[in-house]
């Protein structure tokens, strides 16, 4: 699933190859996929997009938005892209294909579930509208607007009082684009157990957590995304996660203890029991 590093990387790539190109063909819903959520209905996409010229692309949390003047095309975090120059072969299945006047194409495919929405005038409709608007109106985690002061305003929100660090970071769209995938290494580098309550952390630990968010996500972008994702050209990312399903049970690269996998809050968490001890009491300072 795409998260903030890939959304930023892919938006940069899409802006680089698509800006200035005019949309000639749109095919939506070519391959049926019951967990692809379109808005409006797939048969309406061509009428909205054909003839439009791409003016840019941007990340919106864990989503990617392609801009064509006043028209937006938004892909949620379950969508993968593939950019194809002629005479490249098109994938056999896709949920959206956009052909440009220079014969290049962009396809979008959904793995488990995902949304594809297009709208005019800056405001979407439908079930995904609130999800998009929340992500758009909050500081992007990799932007300068995501400051330490802003991060602490999230920490001090009464809604997260007594919640775990995982709940703080990866639920409720408090930090759009920061999900369970990137969470693991962020907490590892901060030395914090995912189940530790926010009330147990000191000011210094929140400083370390904030720096880990910025540094870990920044490294993922710099290395071309995580190696579990492919970019718009089909290349795997270069960032190899320290904690993931592939490293569970392996020795921690710092201390050598076996990396633990547990089910928690509807998903898996991974941690080193030595480098990330579970705190049960608050630490001053």
How is the main sheet built?
Answer: 5 strands, mixed
Radius of gyration, whole Å: 20 Å
**Strand portion:** 15-25%
Helix content estimate: 25-40%
Summarize model confidence as the mean pLDDT. 94
Neighbour order of strands in the largest sheet: 2-9-5-4-3
According to DSSP, the number of beta strands is 11
N to C succession of SSEs: HEEHEEEEEEEHHHHHEE
Q: What general outline do the C-alpha atoms trace?
A: elongated
What's the end-to-end separation, in Å? 37 Å
| Coarse structural class | alpha+beta
Query: Can you count the helices?
Result: 7
Parts with pLDDT < 50 across at least 5 consecutive residues = none
Walk me through this protein's architecture.
- With 285 residues, the chain is α+β, with helices and mostly antiparallel strands.
- It has seven helices and eleven strands.
- Strands 2-9-5-4-3 form a five-stranded mixed β-sheet. It has a four-stranded antiparallel β-sheet with strand order 1-7-8-6. A two-stranded antiparallel sheet has the order 10-11.
- The longest helix is centred in the C-terminal third of the chain and has 20 residues, at 203-222.
- The two termini are 37 Å apart.
- The model has no long low-confidence stretch (mean pLDDT 94).
Question: What is this entry, summarized?
Answer:
By secondary structure, the protein is α+β, with helices and mostly antiparallel strands. Helices cover 26% and strands 21% of the residues.
Task: Draw up the topology in text.
Elements: H1 4-18, E1 23-28, E2 36-39, H2 45-49, E3 56-60, E4 63-68, E5 71-75, E6 79-84, E7 96-100, E8 105-110, E9 114-120, H3 129-137, H4 148-155, H5 165-170, H6 180-190, H7 203-222, E10 260-264, E11 267-271
Parallel strand pairs: 2-9
Antiparallel strand pairs: 1-7, 3-4, 4-5, 5-9, 6-8, 7-8, 10-11
Helix pairs in contact: 1-7, 6-7
